[in-house]
Amino acid sequence: MQDQSIHVSGARAPTRRALLATAVTAAAGLALGTSAAGGARSASGPAGPRTTLPAAVVTNKVYTVSTRNTSTSSTYPRTEFRGLWTASVLNIDWPSRTGLSVAAQQTELRSILNLAVSRNLNAVFLQVRPAADRMWSSTLGEPWSRYLTGTQGTHPGYDPLAYAVEQAHSRGLALHAWVNPFRVSMDANLTSLVASHPARLNPTWSFAYGGRRYYNPGIPAVRAFVRAVVVDLVRRYDVDGVHFDDYFYPYPVAGQALPDAAAFAAYGGGYTSIANWRRNNINVFVRDTYAAIKAARRRAAFGISPFGIWLNATSSALGSATSGLESYSALYADSRKWVKEGWVDYILPQLYWYQGYPPADYDVLVAWWARQVAGTRVKLYTGEAAYRVGDPAQPAWQDPNELRDHITKGRSVPGVAGQAFYNTTAFRANPLNAIGILAARHYARPALPVPLPHLVSARPWTPLIRSASWYGSGILLTWEAKSGAEPPTHIAIWRWESSGAAVPNIQSTATYLRAVRRRTGLTQSWRDTGVVRGRTYWYLIQSVSQTGIDSGNATCVFVRA
Fold first, then answer.
1. What is the distance between the alpha carbons of residues 537 and 556, in angstroms, rounded to a whole number?
2. Strand partners, 213
3. Which of 16, 332, 366, 387 could form a disulfide with 278 if both were Cys (CB 3.0 to 4.6 A apart)?
4. Per-residue model confidence as pLDDT tens digits over 59-92
């Protein structure tokens, strides 16, 4: 991610909803251990008098329901993308330094995934190609990353991406492989690369600029090679997505021109403007990469986190009311076109500015990006600057509520489907308790993945509750989830206290969502220790596919703890 503070100039607990389900919509289900109606607490509350259950509801009987509630909740959204960027370049986040043992690297990675779970996030972007190197097994010639062992090309002793996917999925997290497409090295010298590096074997493919080295996007062979690297990754690994950051052509350096005149002369075709040619190079690359990913793994999402400003309104009537650096003209990244053409599944602009910042007001940009995705199938997530919290140079970032208010704003804007935080180190450090405040306000419940029906819209099998009874220190819920034509990847579990007056509808919010578990086999169990012995509860479960599509029905059961 780019520290965007250098590219702009200028000045500087809601209440819980009540249960909406009221109508009996269940078809008869399987009876569990008993079919006799039992006592329940009355509708007057947990302390109310005992009553006999209504005839419509039978304790420990499994009901199948299809009717859905229609009300939504901005406090507890049913679906929301909640991501965390974990950077490996320069060992920013992981590994914390080079040369750690395999066990130490894996311990650190598990700690990051546990951090995400503890804050009710549901996705991690792991940077596995920081600089034309890799953190997975491949035969395409790129070396193992120097940020693992300290020496480029040295095998780390395990497969980091395979380990990350397995560990993330076991925790119910999505794992997106974060790829920097064109950066070759953090220094400019070709000889700093291993002799077998593709950039050294093809010395005309890259150029030095601003003290670093980059692949030239204007060379068709370069674009084809990087695309092949991405395809190799998605074919070998069950990643939930591929993620590009904001580096296409490099950020401009004062007094330096991009050294790509020779490539323009060779491959410029009918272009008379080198700027338009550069933009087309990136457009073609994004378009073709999207198609290649879908051909290799159609369920894998493809998304990009561009610089937050496309064009200012002073440059285009379609631009935003901002006055900062423009990615369209500075980076040759026509991010608006990628959205309108459907070349990405999600767009995650880096909105690393505070609310009211004159050159790039966060609220203005959220609204602008929401207008761009309107009418498209592209999902919008906002990139949040956890690393800016506590910045002494800007008083707004010394307000512990700034990030909290960003999420409040995003949830009020139609089209915003989630957010991601940069970076992991800052997110963990939690300066000013800003992340704690944000999580308490907005992430008190987990959220299901955002549906991407244009990838695969088929519904997975409805999971069937097999039993729910007191076991040890809680209720042990057991279910069966078949893997049909569209396999389920998650099981969503709702639970709430109730008198059992009516069989509930499928829940449209996460108000009572207690857990989201990775589907690992035909039969699974989960123990709920958050119940009180003697009280009565509804449990309701659904399955969810890798593309976020839920089962058409749900099953539910009314039990006494």
1. 10
2. 185, 208
3. 332
4. 999 999 999 999 999 999 999 999 999 999 999 9
